[in-house]
Specification:
This protein has 270 residues and is α/β, with parallel strands linked by helices. The chain has 11 helices and 10 strands.
């Protein structure tokens, strides 16, 4: 996409808008306004190709020296997205990272209702219970997409999808997966209605996934490292799984253990 791009065609971001965008770094403002920020050239490029929820781009002049900078701005112009230029210093104030990339997008939040996760005949459901560390959540989203899991149900104190650390760790997967946030009781109710069995993991008990035949459709529950899964989930579990580990190791980080389970339980026919 070849188009002559110059700084002069983009207005400078005002102090009021700068303050507005900086505030979106806080969860309370994201929740109040239904908007969030996404950082980085690759993420913004992907969003322009796949999302209808991006409405504003803010960039520093440094973007134009990047190989895809002009193309990114040209795409945004074609989609009639609002574009502002600003200084690197101002962009640093808006960004969540110490050395931000030269472009940030502002998007409208869009988390679908729980019913949307059950509209089709999905075969693999990942349920995240009280996983509060945003890096772990983002890593699990990225891993889930890599191994073909596209239905993610988040409950309890699981980190907010639009937390910058979740978005960064997911490397774009957060925008491509079908992700729902709901009360645990509602998730269990929907799984029961759809006759989808629940699978859980335990450090030292249960069967090894590769040695057992798994049901065609199921939901894998992953819980907090500190507290494990809620009793209501353990009680309803149709099957308990474990990963074969050395007895010298007590447990694994939830993102690592979850990643191994997601691989072992992937749908090879998908």
């Amino acid at each position: 996409m070849k188009q002559n791009i110059s700084l002069e065609q983009f207005p400078i971001l005002s102090k009021a808008r700068t303050k507005y965008f900086c505030e979106l770094g806080q969860k309370k403002y994201r929740k109040e306004r239904g908007e969030f920020l996404a950082e980085g050239i690759r993420v913004c490029y992907d969003l322009l190709n796949t999302s209808d929820y991006i409405h504003t781009l803010v960039f520093s002049p440094k973007l134009l020296s990047h190989s895809r900078g002009e193309e990114l701005l040209a795409k945004a112009l074609l989609k009639k997205i609002e574009i502002f230029q600003t200084s690197e210093e101002t962009l640093e104030k808006m960004a969540d990272t110490c050395q931000p990339q030269p472009v940030i997008a502002c998007l409208s939040c869009c988390i679908p209702p729980i019913e949307s996760a059950f509209f089709d005949d999905g075969r693999r459901f990942l349920v995240l219970c009280d996983i509060s560390d945003p890096g772990n959540v983002g890593t699990l989203l990225r891993t889930a997409e890599a191994f073909g899991w596209d239905k993610i149900l988040c409950t309890g104190s699981t980190a907010e999808l639009y937390n910058p650390k979740v978005l960064r760790a997911s490397m774009g997967s957060a925008f491509r997966l079908r992700i729902v946030y709901s009360e645990l009781s509602q998730v269990l109710s929907f799984l029961a209605q759809a006759k989808i069995p629940s699978l859980i993991t335990m450090p030292r008990e249960g069967c090894i996934p590769s040695q057992e035949k798994m049901p065609q459709r199921f939901a894998l529950f992953l819980g907090s490292e500190a507290y494990g899964l809620p009793d209501s989930v353990v009680k309803e579990a149709a099957q308990i799984l474990r990963l074969p580990m050395s007895p010298k190791v007590e447990s694994l980080n939830v993102a690592i253990a979850g990643g191994i389970a997601l691989f072992l339980l992937r749908d090879e026919n998908a």
